[in-house]
From TrEMBL:
<feature type="domain" description="Fumarylacetoacetase-like C-terminal">
    <location>
        <begin position="34"/>
        <end position="234"/>
    </location>
</feature>
<dbReference type="InterPro" id="IPR036663">
    <property type="entry name" value="Fumarylacetoacetase_C_sf"/>
</dbReference>
<protein>
    <submittedName>
        <fullName>Fumarylpyruvate hydrolase</fullName>
        <ecNumber>3.7.1.20</ecNumber>
    </submittedName>
</protein>
<keyword id="KW-0378">Hydrolase</keyword>
<dbReference type="InterPro" id="IPR011234">
    <property type="entry name" value="Fumarylacetoacetase-like_C"/>
</dbReference>
<dbReference type="GO" id="GO:0034545">
    <property type="term" value="F:fumarylpyruvate hydrolase activity"/>
</dbReference>
<keyword id="KW-0479">Metal-binding</keyword>
<dbReference type="Pfam" id="PF01557">
    <property type="entry name" value="FAA_hydrolase"/>
</dbReference>
Length: 234
């Protein structure tokens, strides 16, 4: 219905609503927006040439349909340097503006294991030119992830190992307690910049050890208490 109460139709067929399966159920979690926290583990911030003690949190976005649960990551065009970044996925069931830190976890539906795949060469060129990062970050299938596990089942993880193996070799390793900005803080901070909505996803940052992938690589990611992700680069 349009604002005058008459029936309207779309000019073209609307795209399907991007969604992530909910583990152990036949339900889907509909995705609204995808916010990514930059340089949220101190060692990774240093690895990327920044001082973690001097930066307020910052965010960039991926697109909802960049999330992918097929287990395959198609190597993208226009890049020769695509990196893996293992992250905890935070899915919101409610939102708002100016959410207090102490109430932020009430907004969380559940968690997952995800990858922020990055065309590092294109991101680097964008950084050098003072341009946005989307060409490096928001391409097709650039956010492989697991089904979501409800917080009602696992609680709210604040510590525990987060790691990524490439072809059986450990590349990234850290602990959730090493996050510079914790999950309640990132939700609260984001809600001062945007109106958070049910269906919003937050990729909460990556530990040190990011590196390039090639076709044929098998990536295995793990977060204690959340789950395991396996992705093949094709």
């Amino acid at each position: 219905m349009n604002m005058h109460g008459t029936t309207s139709s779309y000019a073209i067929e609307p795209a399907a609503i991007p969604s992530i399966p909910v583990a152990g159920t036949d339900k889907l979690f509909p995705v609204h927006r995808v916010y990514c926290v930059g340089r949220n583990y101190a060692a990774h911030a240093v690895e990327m040439g920044h001082d973690p003690d001097r930066e307020p949190p910052f965010f960039f976005q991926k697109n909802p349909d960049n999330l992918d649960t097929t287990g395959e990551f198609p190597y993208p065009p226009a890049s020769n340097d695509v990196h893996h970044e293992i992250e905890m996925v935070v899915a919101l069931k409610s939102g708002g503006t100016d959410i207090p830190v102490e109430k932020a976890l009430d907004c969380v539906f559940g968690y997952g294991v995800g990858l922020d795949m990055t065309r590092r060469d294109l991101q680097g060129k964008a950084k050098d030119m003072g341009r946005p990062w989307e060409v490096g970050k928001a391409f097709e299938a650039s956010a492989p992830c697991t089904p979501l596990v409800p917080a009602s089942s696992i609680g709210h993880p604040t510590q525990g190992a987060i790691w990524l193996d490439v072809n059986g070799q450990r590349k990234q390793t850290g602990d959730l307690n090493q996050m510079i900005w914790k999950v309640p803080e990132m939700i609260s901070y984001l809600s001062g910049l945007f109106t958070l909505m049910p269906g919003d996803i937050i990729l909460s940052g990556t530990p040190a050890g990011v590196g390039a992938v090639v076709r044929g690589d098998v990536l295995r990611g793990h977060i204690d208490g959340v789950g395991d992700l396996e992705v093949r680069v094709v």
